[in-house]
Design goal:
Order of helices and strands of chain A: HHHEEHHHHHHHHHHHHHHHHHH
Number of strands of chain A: 2
Structural class of chain B: mainly alpha
Largest sheet of chain B: 2 strands, antiparallel
Helix content of chain A: over 70%
Radius of gyration of chain A: 21 Å
Structural class of chain A: mainly alpha
Strand order of the largest sheet of chain B: 1-2
Oligomer: heterodimer
Strand content of chain A: under 5%
Largest interface: A-B, 29 and 29 residues
Chain lengths: ~500, ~500
């Protein structure tokens, strides 16, 4: 079998495993099987990426040739995102064992089955080259995600999941309407085919409305301000493992699909010239960066603070897109990858903290730095990455983002980026100061350091933050290849 | 001279970091920790001296540590200014070690492992800045220096210490991230390189106006050089224990700031290009303004350490002025002033700490008659004050000599006058403590017995004061060292 025939298994393995895991009893086997499935997906995705960097891979399902049949179409952009999603799942699962055992003691089979379904959905969205197929996978992943968020121990998790359900469904419906408009006008659902046929009908109201519907629908899944309202509650009250997984994957996949529609299905000329998309995205991105960071600065609950920080970080990515240049798009992909690394590491550290402390209020964490030194050091180091200190992954994405802004002569954007970075300094530093520079309150229970099964994966993620801050060949290479694939032109002299 | 060890540049930078790691792991044994502090400082000094001999014979190779992206490198190289900065900080680290150990133990402070580990990291970062071969490496170590000194400033953990430390870190990070980082990326976007090169890299690549904007960003972004209005962090940092104020906030941290300014002026902008830029005058006059205003503020500070802090703000601006005058004489004077002010200011801080240890006094107005009880300390203070003012026979004379003749050479009459007024102001705020201590009687009821601080404190402060005297006679070698920059047509 050659590599191409393995391609669909990236999605199929988690999807099929999901059914098996649902039947497995106890607390060990569901987890172990899930881990194996995620690892297998990640390995295949890692093998596919180098192939896809050079050329486009296409796998027709059931040998029905596109555009009639459904095809998986993989280039550098989605191979990169698929590796990110599968890789993050494989890295988060070793961490999951202790945390899930504590939070969801019973019926873990069902929980992990839902998790695998969410994973399969996200991977399916990423790889599929068929618009309706994307919608189906989006629904699969969303429904599974609502269910796993509702597993949170706090009863507010139910309300958070319900709100996400309502908003997510609205978003999915918008996407569906948009796809239907495009189908109506072009008569095809295959993305590549659609791209070929669109120019003939591009000057119609239906096509323009279709693109607008798609952008709004995906903007909801992406948590682009002002459509971010579901995110803070969902992240705060979901089980810690679910937050860890979602923070690194869900919004990233939504961003990728949006880019696919903007750049491949519609050409950049259309998206950014006919519709004033660039300025709309730029305004929303900047607003998201500011509002997210601003609100994060005043949160008492650390998990919620990080959730708002995610809203801000989505803003950075969209800002890179809105500059419509090779460097800007590279910056967006870089930040997509690097932000997954840093937010996952941060949420893992917070999960370690929650495992021992219970409460995540900043006041109740005073002085915990001395009692849980490894956890808090991990938090601090991952925090440096989000601030963008050199030698961390965050610095690399910020470097490219500012470079893109400088190249576009948008000096005010440079100013805004550094100001929001300072806001990140503030909200990260608040936690560090509470942890180390204040004394433990009188009568507080002594905290024990988190168990190794949680600490080791957390530190692996922290180490990756520094590794990808120093060795940028994979990330910068893949990001510029992804930008190239989307723009359809060689980016050539990218530094 | 093969007796001295010859390490590669990265190893020299790494040595204090290794020391910090060992100190951090030293556990509860005070003896082991003190031994490690001594060992790190000594090893670092020997490594720097070895480097110096190698440098004099031209045998030190540049070193590329890692390439982040094409064009973005972590790399080290050595040049005269960096060498001078290294010699200054390594020598004073060794002298400050006994002082810090004595002070922290006598003062009954806790968490000494963290304290000495951060102390060593700060010195290592200063070495990284001194040897940086490009802007990125410099930025990296600059930020490590800011962050690693935060626990030192906030050491006591009181609300006041935390507030001061917050101002400290906030201002330093704010300026570096908001101004320095964009300026660096701008340089990269404009020239495609971040390396330092003799004569600068910007000339011909960007318009003088754009370069002027970069200069403003860089100069105000170098918060550690304490140009107004970003000088507040330095007085705020005075809540730290005195060994920190002495070594870091009179030598390592602030000198790192002005070193960055000098290095940018000489190796990124180039003095010739700097002289062409109209906007460099803005920085020049801001620095002159800072020099005078900080002196005026210092006169009104009753708290001795706050007075010394504002004095440092003022003296740092001498160096910035020297860099902005953009001629070889002034730049040489600025380089020498790094050394001279280091040796002049550190005994002043040592004395302030010794006075606090021996008599719990922190205010200038409480110093009446103290010369009778602490003769050695107050004599050292006198010498340090003379050095900062620039009166013979102390080293401070020579750096100011060069600065003033540089201003004269460049035809900057206003700056010349500013230097003169500033020297008068220096006398007005540095000599009153000495006069009070020696000429006024002790307040009623206090015995005039000699009661000095512990020997661990008195010996280093005497040695540094003597060093300031010695530099008057030995000023030839720093002058020769710094002049090497301009020797081959740079």
């Amino acid at each position: 079998m050659n590599l191409l025939e393995w391609l669909p298994f990236i999605v199929l393995i988690p999807l099929i495993s999901s059914g098996i895991v649902a039947c497995l009893p106890g607390r060990f086997w569901p987890w172990a099987f899930t881990l194996l499935a995620a690892l297998a997906s990640a390995v295949i995705a890692a093998l596919v990426l180098p192939e896809a960097m050079g050329s486009e891979l296409s796998y027709p399902f059931g040998n029905w040739q596109p555009p009639i049949g459904i095809e998986y179409r993989v280039d550098a952009a989605n191979a990169f995102v698929a590796l990110l999603v599968a890789g993050m799942a494989a890295l988060a699962l070793p961490w999951a064992k202790a945390s899930v055992d504590q939070e969801i003691p019973e019926r873990q089979g069902a929980f992990y089955a839902l998790f695998l379904m969410a994973l399969a959905g996200l991977l399916g969205i990423t790889l599929s080259g068929d618009a309706f197929n994307i919608f189906v996978f989006l629904e699969i992943s969303s429904l599974a995600t609502y269910a796993i968020i509702a597993h949170g121990r706090d009863r507010r998790a139910l309300l958070a999941a319900f709100r996400y359900l309502i908003m997510g469904t609205v978003g999915a419906t918008f996407l569906l309407i948009g796809i239907a408009f495009l189908y109506m006008m072009t008569g095809t659902l295959n993305l590549a085919d659609m791209a070929e046929r669109l120019p003939e009908v591009s000057d119609t109201r239906a096509v323009r409305a279709g693109l607008a519907f798609i952008i709004v629908g995906l903007g909801l899944k992406l948590a682009l301000l002002p459509l971010h309202l579901w995110l803070p509650n969902a992240y705060t009250y979901a089980p810690h493992f679910v937050t860890v997984f979602l923070a690194g994957t869900a919004t990233k996949v939504a961003l990728y699909v949006m880019l696919r529609f903007i750049f491949t299905v519609f050409s950049p000329d259309y998206s950014f010239v006919v519709l004033p998309l660039s300025s709309v995205l730029m305004v929303l991105a900047v607003a998201g960066m500011f509002a997210g960071s601003w609100v994060a600065m005043f949160q008492d609950n650390i998990k919620r603070m990080l959730a708002y920080s995610s809203v801000a970080q989505v803003g950075y990515m969209v800002l890179g897109v809105s500059l419509v240049s090779a460097i800007g798009l590279t910056a967006a992909f870089l930040h997509l990858f690097n932000h997954a690394l840093m937010k996952t590491a941060l949420f893992m550290a917070v999960g370690c903290l929650a495992y021992r402390a219970g409460s995540l209020k900043i006041q109740s964490l005073q002085g915990c730095g001395r009692e849980m030194p490894w956890t808090m050091t991990a938090f601090a180091l991952a925090g440096l990455s989000i601030i963008g200190v050199p030698t961390t992954a965050g610095f690399i994405s910020k470097w490219y983002l500012i470079l893109a802004a400088v190249e576009a002569q948008s000096w005010w954007l440079v100013g805004l980026i550094v100001i929001t970075s300072m806001m990140a300094v503030y909200y990260i530093w608040r936690v560090i100061e509470a942890a180390w520079m204040t004394e433990r309150p009188e009568g507080a229970t002594r905290l024990k350091e988190a168990p190794l099964s949680l600490l080791i994966p957390t530190w692996v993620l922290v180490a990756l933050n520094f590794y990808f801050g120093i060795d940028t060949r994979l990330t910068v290479g893949a990001s510029s290849a992804a930008a190239e694939a989307l723009l359809g032109v060689p980016t050539g002299g990218l530094p | 001279m093969d007796l001295l060890p010859q390490f590669s540049l990265a190893t020299v930078v790494l040595l204090p970091f290794i020391g910090a790691l060992l100190i951090g792991l030293a556990g509860r044994s005070a003896t082991l920790r003190n031994a490690l502090c001594w060992a790190s400082a000594l090893a670092f000094l020997l490594a720097v001296l070895g480097l110096f001999t190698g440098f004099q014979s031209g045998q030190v190779a540049d070193q590329l540590v890692w390439e982040l992206m094409p064009g973005l490198r972590i790399a080290f190289s050595v040049e005269p200014l960096g060498m001078l900065f290294l010699l200054l900080s390594s020598g004073l680290w060794l002298l400050a070690t006994p002082y810090a150990i004595g002070y922290m133990q006598k003062g009954g402070y806790d968490h000494l492992n963290r304290f000495f580990a951060c102390y060593a990291i700060a010195l290592g970062s200063a070495a990284g800045i001194a040897l940086a071969d490009n802007l990125l490496t410099m930025f990296l170590f600059y930020e490590i220096l800011s962050v690693s000194t935060y626990p030192l400033v906030a050491h006591t953990g009181t609300a006041k210490a935390r507030g001061g430390a917050r101002t400290y870190l906030g201002l330093l990070l704010l300026t570096s991230i908001c101004f320095w980082l964009p300026a660096m990326i701008w340089v990269y976007a404009a020239t495609g390189t971040l390396d330092f090169a003799a004569g600068g890299i910007l000339e011909g690549q960007v318009s003088p106006l754009a370069a002027g904007a970069m200069l403003m960003l860089f100069m105000f972004g170098t918060g550690k050089a304490a140009l107004m209005p970003f000088h507040r962090w330095l007085p705020a940092a005075m809540v730290a224990p005195t060994p920190v104020s002495a070594l870091l906030h009179a030598v390592a941290v602030v000198k790192a700031g002005v070193f960055v300014v000098l290095k940018l002026a000489v190796y990124t902008f180039g003095l010739d290009f700097l002289a062409e830029m109209a906007l460099s005058d803005i920085v020049l006059y801001t620095a002159a303004f800072t020099m005078l205003t900080a002196s005026l503020i210092a006169m009104n500070q009753d708290n001795l350490k706050a007075r010394l802090a504002y004095s440092t703000v003022s003296q740092l601006s001498y160096i910035v002025v020297g860099a902005m005058l953009a001629n070889a004489i002034a730049a040489t004077g600025a380089g020498m002033h790094m050394l001279m002010h280091g040796y002049g200011k550190i005994p002043l801080f040592f004395c302030a700490g010794a006075i606090y240890l021996a008599s719990k006094k922190t205010l200038v107005s409480e110093l009446d008659g103290l010369g009778r009880r602490m003769p050695v300390t107050m004599t050292a203070f006198f010498l340090g004050a003379l050095c900062v003012i620039g009166i013979p026979p102390l080293g401070g004379l020579w750096s100011k000599w060069n600065l003033v003749s540089g201003a004269f050479d460049g035809g900057y009459g206003i700056i010349l006058i500013a230097f003169l007024i500033s020297t008068l102001l220096n006398i007005a705020y540095l000599l009153p403590p000495v006069l009070r201590a020696f000429l006024k009687p002790l307040p009623d009821g206090q015995p005039a017995t000699v009661k000095e601080a512990p020997l661990m404190c008195v010996i280093p402060l005497s040695l540094t004061a003597l060093g300031a005297v010695a530099l008057f006679f030995l000023a030839g070698w720093p002058h020769a060292l710094v002049s090497q920059i301009f020797a081959n047509g740079g």
